[in-house]
Design goal:
With about 70 residues, the protein is mostly beta strands. It has no helices and four strands.
Length: about 70
């Protein structure tokens, strides 16, 4: 739930829904402009802080992993 990395490569949002699938969790995050982004997170350690409904989160990525899709 904490921001790390470059400020240019993150989006803040609220967790709308999530599912736990053993070693993987999938989250649906609503951004401030109303878009829903679906993300996945590997469940590596049981001691990690749990993310739940209505939590404020930051989605971040490495700039080199960015791919722009045009409609």
């Amino acid at each position: 739930n904490q921001l790390s990395g470059s400020e240019d490569t993150y989006i803040k949002g609220i967790v709308e829904d999530f599912g736990y699938f053993g070693n993987l969790s999938i989250y649906r995050v609503k951004t401030s402009d109303g878009n829903i982004i679906q993300v996945s997170k590997q469940n590596r350690y049981r001691s990690e802080t749990a993310i739940s409904w209505d939590d404020e989160v930051y989605l971040s990525w490495e700039p080199s992993n960015l791919l722009l899709l045009v409609e």
